[in-house]
Amino acid sequence: MKMKIAFKFFSILIMTPLFIFGPSFYLGETEAAETKSQSSEQSNENIDIKLFTFKPETIEVPVGTTVVWTNSDAIEHSVTNGTPEKPGMSFDSDFFTEGQTFTFTFDKPGTYPYFCKRHNSMRGEIKVVPAAP
Length: 133
Known about the structure:
By secondary structure, this protein is α+β, with helices and mostly antiparallel strands.
């Protein structure tokens, strides 16, 4: 029992300054700034596949963004670059089922339409813009 109380007290002592002052309290200003800039350079966007739709259907992201599609339907879907009439070559998840994800990092500016190979009416678009200086 005394060990649990000591652990809780120690945890509060260590964590309170982190919540109040941020990571710079432990890391120093330079390391905290580096951590923040690294995390802002690598961003993720999430798209949910639900009720036979991509939500959101269209997004705009800077170059270097990783998009994560999560299948929330109890049926297989795909995330395939292009259109059913003219499939592209940039990415293709193949079929994945409920709870599974597909990720792709967009490293070139452009407009990337995509669709589901099994349900051709399911379509979306990623607009990739140059990263801000």
